Amino acid sequence: MSAEHSHADAPIFQDWEHVRGNATVLGGRFELRRALGDGSYAAVYEAYDRQLQRRVAVKLFNRCAPNEMASALREARLTASLRHENVLTVHDIGEHGGWPFLALELAQTDLRRWLDDAPRASADICAHFLAAGRGLAAAHRAGLVHHDFKPANVLIRPDGTVAVGDFGLARHLETVELSQERRAQLAAPNSLVRSRVGVDRREAPRFAFGTMRYIAPERLHGAAGDSRSDQFSFCVALWEALAGEHPFSGADADARYASIEAGPRGRPDAPSAVLSVLRRGLAVEPRDRFLTMERLLAALQAPPQRSRVFGQFVRHGLSTAATAGALAAAFVLAFGLSREAPALDMQASSRAALEAHALVEQAQRFAVDSEPNRAAELFEFAMLRAAKATYEEQRSLATDLEALGDHLDQGAAWAESARVFAAALALAEESRASEVTQVRLARKLSTAQARTRRQDR
C-alpha cells in the first residue's frame, strides 16, 4: 500500500460502528495512525507494528458481507504465501471485531502517481511494467489471478523496485451470493464496474468486479476470467501509459465492450514490435492472447526480428498436397511474372517482393472467384516471402494485402479477411507506413474479427 495515498485529516474508522472509542489497535499489534484509502469493501490505513517496530499498511475488510469473509481470508492466506520481489509482502493476517484484515508492506508511492508526476521515457515506463508483469506471472504460477490490475495497484518502494498489490482480493467477490443490503450498497456509482450477469432465474445473480478502465471484455459479460484477463488489463495500462490516452471508452459494460471490439485508440510511443505484442494482449477473445504472462513478457523483451512479425500468420496445418500445390503456384507465378513485366526494375524490387506480389495478385483472383481457401493458401506463402522484403516493398505489399482483404470481406470470408488485414497491419507497422494507413487497417481488422465472432455463434 502506498503512503502517498494518505489523507492527513481523514479520521480513523470514520463512522464504522464495529470499532469505537480508543479501539485503534488491531490484533493487539497494529496501531492505526491515519487513513490511506477507502474502497467498496475495504479500507486501508497506515499503522505502526508494535511488535517489529515498523510502519505498515493495514487493509481492513470492513464492508464484506458475512458469506464473503471466509473467502476473503482464504484468498489472503494464498496471497501471503507468495514470496517474490515484485509482489507486495503480506506480513500478517488477522481479524478484528469479526472483520478480516491484512498487514502489508508500506510502499513509497504507486505507478499511477509516478506516471502522473512527470513525463517519463518510454524505456522507463516499459521497465516498470515489465517488473509488475513479473509479479503477475509469479502469482499466476501460484494459482492466483489479480482481477483488478491497474497502475494504482502497482506500488513503488523507496529503493525504486516495483511490487504488485491486492492479489486475489477481488476474486472472491465474483460468484458469492449477495444479500439484498449488499446489492443496494453495490448499486452506488463509483470507480468499479459491477455488471450483473446470468439469466437463469433459478440461480443467484452474479456481478463482475473490476475497475471499468482496465477490466477484460469477458469479465464485462460475467465470465470468471483467468490469467489472460490479467494480461488484458496489463496491456490496457501499458498502452495508456505509452500513448498518453486510454485505448477504450464507454461508461457502461455494453459500451465498453463495443469500444474494445472496435480496437484500441491512439498511438503508443513504442516500437512496432511492442505494439504488436500489446494488440495481441488486447484481443477480445482470451484464446487469441498469449498463453501465459511469461510469454507476453518474453515477447515484449525480445530483440526485434522482422521474420517474427509474419510467422504468426502462417498456418502449419496445410496438407502435403496443398503445400506442394501452393509452392508450385508460387514458382510459376513468380518466374512468369518476372519475364512478363520488363518494366519492373529488378534492382529496386527484390525477387522475394516480386514473388509475394504475384502470389497476392493471384490470391485476389481466387477471392473474386469465391475461392477463399485457395486465396488463403497463396496469402500464407506470400507472407513467407514478405519477410525478406525491404521496408519500402513491405509498404507496397501492405496495400496489396488490404485489397485482398477487401475482396475476401466482400465475399463474407471474414475469418480469412481478418488474417489478411492482421498481416497488412503488421507490415504497415513494421515498415512505418503512415498513421492514417495503420488506423484504417486496424479498423478493418477489428470489423472482420467482430464479424467472425458473430458468425461463429
TrEMBL record:
Residues involved in ATP binding: K59
Domain of life: Bacteria
GO molecular function, one term: ATP binding
Segments forming domain Protein kinase: 30-300
Keywords, ordered alphabetically: ATP-binding, Kinase, Nucleotide-binding, Serine/threonine-protein kinase, Transferase
PANTHER family per record: MITOGEN-ACTIVATED PROTEIN KINASE KINASE KINASE 20-RELATED, SERINE_THREONINE-PROTEIN KINASE NEKL-3
Protein name stated in the entry: Serine/threonine protein kinase
Species this chain originates from: Plesiocystis pacifica SIR-1
Source species taxonomy: Bacteria, Pseudomonadati, Myxococcota, Polyangia, Nannocystales
